[in-house]
Amino acid sequence: MKKGHFIGISAAIVTMSLVWILLTPVLFPANASQLDTIAPHAGFMAPDFTLSSPEEEMQSLSDYRGKPVLVFLWASWCSVCKRAMPGLQSVYEDYAVKGFEILAVNTTFQDTLTTAINTFQSEGYTYQLLLDRKGSVAQAYRLYALPTAILVGSDGRVLDVVIGSGISEGYLRSRLDDIFEGSK
Amino acid sequence: MFPIINIGLIAIQAAGLILLLSLFIGLWLVGQFANKIGTAGEVIENCLLISLAAGILSARIGFMLQNPSLFLDNPLSLFSLTPSMFNPGFGLLIGALITLILAQKQYLPLWPTLDTLSPLILWVFAGFHLSNYAKGTAYGLPTQLPWGIQLWQAIRHPVQLYAVILASGLFLWLLIQTKALSKTGFIHSGVLFNLVLLSLAMSTIITRAFVAQKILFGKLDIPQLVGFLIVPCTLLLIYDINHKNRRQRSVLIGIGSNINPAHNIPEAIDEINRNFRIRRKSGIYRTEAVKKTAEGSHYWNLVVEIGTRLPFPELLSQLKSIEQQFGRQPGNDAHVPLDLDILTFNGDVFNYQGKAIPDPDMIKYRYIVQPLADMSPEFRHPADGRSIAKILEKIEDHSQIDKISEVQNGITG
After folding, report:
1. Nearest to A166 among B83, B198, B243 (CB)
2. Terminus of chain B with fewer CB atoms < 10 Å: N or C?
3. CA A177 to CA A183: how far, in whole Å?
4. Which pTM value belongs to this model?
């Protein structure tokens, strides 16, 4: 390629890139209207739900607005879930005083109710157990695999969705430290 | 969106799987490409694997340093497989540093090595965006276009796929350009890599416009701005590599003759010096003919370094015409009044019309390696960075070779 051609093409590329970048905020502004969109993904509002506890007490996610909440979808036959739960208990014991809540949503529609309750209670977990008998929460949160954990900020917005064993004690503690430090 | 792939009873995180697969396919392609053009594929792959491991480990250590209490409570968690406990920035930094150190230690030549990495860069770029598609992250703005996808309560631009499609197109271009990663044509080293980088920066600038959640600096998107920094840099580098007219390019030429060499060799040196400037030359060596069919009993060989501004194809044809002046007939390998071979060209690695540069014979035959070691003991192979001493040590050609003239400050006696 001739020197002159190359310089001409380069100048065109640089100019066009610059124009496109400057036009982006005008033609394709970051979506402000999605602020109210409800979806189970980071950045959107967390889908609300109302479920009963084993004591038949109705609880909604929206009852906890103002507090960071971890929605933890689990089943008694899921070994990864059961391995993660003692870690959640330990975090819960340390952070509950600051306002952190855990809603352990059992996918009762694909679990045995008594086994689920026994598993939970025999381990002495003190966070809230809820029963998804009809699978409505699983559906609203697009459950692909267990466990799925959804960290919801105090404004009701999804902060993170963790599928599988990633919901470790260490991960949760570091996220909560950020959340509570940020709100100071 | 498909966050989980179910294989039998096993549920696999699709995003991680896609990233790993693209990384390994990319690495495998680097090996293939390196074999074809002569760069040090194995060394490059090893460097990358070590850096990758170091990068992953440092990403975890970085996370632990940020959250020291976690580590003190449970030291073993340093090695847990949890993918969420990483500090990617720290991992990238350390991984890049280790790559640099390893590449320096192995004397890997910068541009040929980076050229070899082109397929890996394209695959990882495509893999990254495909994994975003699998997770539903970096999703697009709502659109009415017919190819919009249903995601997060809206019909959206499948922006992750735009990036994947652009990267795939680029990979196809790379395949065509290099004849399925086997030939490069005459191209200065570094051009390929910079073109790939330029195109990926352009892809990022174009596709980021359609992303819904932008990472803003003022009103502008940061990935677009980073892309915009890369564009002029790569263009400048391509310009510099292609139009280095200010200084002459250094070329090594192997000279040989088996017909009346005592006359032809000094004459040839004079002829070359008239056409180009000879910077350095080795002593003259006498060798038994490697090919049994050769007419003359002995070959005389030497190596010279010249400076030239000619592009490779012109230089090649000029050397051919000098050979013919001395009576060389094309196709006759037994009767060789004069043989002029371009061994290296400007430290570039390429493959032009079936001729590989650097010349693969350069590491095979003692009649080239010995004079070269003589002339420039500091020489390193432009494609893989090996020192001339190492090449000489590993050479399998043990034919008898005698020095018949010393180097005399540029003029042989």
Report:
1. B83
2. C
3. 10
4. 0.89
